[in-house]
Design goal:
Shape: globular
Structural class: mainly beta
Largest sheet: 5 strands, antiparallel
Number of strands: 5
Oligomer: single chain
Strand content: over 45%
Helix content: 10-25%
Order of helices and strands: EHEEEE
Amino acid sequence: MINHPVNPAPVNAQTWTTLECMEQFEVHGFCAPFVEVTRKADGQQGSLQFNGIPRVYHSWEPFG
């Protein structure tokens, strides 16, 4: 198994584990490498990107 992120997070970017992502976002759908989400804190809809191994979410981008 290759343990190398295909879609690495930018340097110094905020990242989330799967558990952290589930705590902070409501996930609506996946289309690799993107995830459509709503941020629970304020209801802002947007997207995250992720890599597979290890699973790390990053690059929050609000819609609109």
